[in-house]
Amino acid sequence: MQQSIVEPIYQKAIFWISVAFLLNSSGNFFLFLYSKNSYNDELFRKQYTIIYTTVTVLKNVLLCISIIIKEKSENKDSSLPLDLDLDSFHPTKINT
Amino acid sequence: MFFLQANNSSTGINTALFIGTLGMLTLAIAIVGFVIFHQRKVIRYNNQLKKLEEEKQHILLNASIRFQEEERNRIAADLHDDAGPLLATARLYLNENLVNQEKAQQLQSIFSAKQILDDAILLIRNISHSLMPPTLKNFGLESAGTDLFQKIGGSGIINASARFHDYRVRLKVDQELLVFRIIQELVNNILKHSNSGFIHLTQNNSGQKMYFRIHHDGTGIVQADFEKLNHSTQGLGLKNIASRIKVLNGRIFFEIDPSRTYYKVTIEVPREPAI
Q1: Do residue B28 and residue A23 have CB atoms under 8 angstroms apart?
Q2: What is the value of pTM for the model shown?
Q3: With B235 labelled, which of A25, B34, B136, B187 sits at a CA distance of 20 to 30 A?
Q4: Which of B17, B36, B42 to mutate to test binding with chain A, by most A CBs within 10 Å of its CB?
Q5: What ipTM did this prediction achieve?
């Protein structure tokens, strides 16, 4: 049975978490691959630091987005104002 | 020389690392982008479908409300134009002055009033029968269908006949009523628009489905016309048929015979025997 999609995927926190780890893994893939043999190389280490930092920052930014998205969606659920007083109007109270 | 080679190899690795990382990141971003765009496309398509469905529902709802209003108007007109004057005339015959009249004249007035009241009773019976045929309620769809076609055939204008091949197990009462209304509406349309020489109704079962088919040799419509009229603002009767078919969980097919001499309308109804 075909599932109907209502909410876009980018409005879900889990999507941004997955993207964060996907980019982190793909960004560091070649870095970790070469690091065993070339870590003693000065130029490599410099590049390692730049790439690793950039990818980690990117991952953290995406994780932050996922937290923000989650907070937003949680806020969206409470559509009724919390200070709404619905009990003050009561026919029996008016008559008395 | 060794340093140069080492330096060259180190630059190569660094270039490969840079290009590889960039490639991997591009690939990952492309995959994510593709997922997002594809999903947006699917959502847009779903929304369009939903909108179309809502529009269709709206048209059907409007049609059923309009139909109900027309039916009320018809009943009101029948009661006001036919039953009202008849009863008013009967009242005239039975006025206060009747006691002062001669006996023969009194008898004559009472007789006339009685005749008018009989007519009024007959009229009200006819109105109530057109609302809910008693044959359908008491004896089922087979009798009601046969009765309807006999009445149409009896008029002498058109050759009408009905044949129920296998109706030993009756449908549920509300299903019977819906099927009867659909047949009535179809027959009504055929009589109004098709100029046909005959109408023939047949019924049969196949598995868990019951089939009703109406043949006629006049001008008819095919499935494409039905769908088109169903989505337009015209064709109130057809919209009612469509909504009744939907309630029945059935299907309806409008076809033309390959020999192009007659049209067929087939109704498929899931069998839910009356308990």
Answers
A1: yes
A2: 0.57
A3: B136
A4: B17
A5: 0.72
